[in-house]
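Before anything else, study the sequence and fold tokens given here and see whether the fold suits the sequence. Record follows:
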Amino acid sequence: MSEIETRPIAASGPSLQAKLVTGAAGGIGAAIVSLFRAAGARVLALDINPDALSHAFGKTDGAVSARCCDATREDDVQAAVAAAVTMFGRIDVLVNGVACDEPSGTIVELSPAAWDQTFAANVRSAFLMSRAVVPLMARAGGGSIIHIASQLGRVGTAKRPAYCATKGALIQLAKAMAIDHAADRIRVNALSPGAVATGRLARRYGDLQSASAALAGSHLLQRLADPTEIARAALFLASDQVSFITGSDFLVDGGYTAR
């Protein structure tokens, strides 16, 4: 798909990492990009929605570039990764944050097309992006890959079988990738939020007030998470300061799974 913008970014010191974030125009993705940028990173923000990308990243300080990308398509993924390499020379961190507004329903009620679409958005995208980035990271001496999963990858909930299955798959994908690529000095982890106050959640419940009424009580902290709270966890997992963490599922769920 076409680019929104690709701004040249000046060469930076070795402390500034080059980061690639998918699903970047969503609530969690945009918060991650913003926090990465504030920490001094160079970021290529990828999303399938050009209007949302333009709104989120139309005015930045030059450290962030935005590009349309359907991360379920291999040609789009390859083009986006090539663009990142052209701009940055390397990719140190990949955050796989694509998610779709999947319909609710039991497996009897869900159509095969809806099931396949959910797996394509949530799992295939992470597979394709990781497959394209891992060889680059390995040649550069390592990196960090983060799959945005969910607490619902660990526990189930009614009428969300596709979502629960895909998020569980991402948690297991992180573990398997961590094993396969430890020798390449590539750390791979899952990041599992609880319910987060995002546009996606508002669409599912009608508005955030309704979402909070339905979901806050399931969390020990009795509230929804702010996207920035999830972004802080992503920054933590991306950091070299946690270089001994790999193959983990990092829960940021307000105590949802503690009961």
User: Anything to note?
Assistant: DSSP finds eight helices and eight strands in the chain. The first strand starts at residue 3 and ends at 5. The chain has one domain: 3-252. The beta strands are 3-5, 18-22, 42-47, 64-68, 93-96, 143-148, 186-193, 249-252.
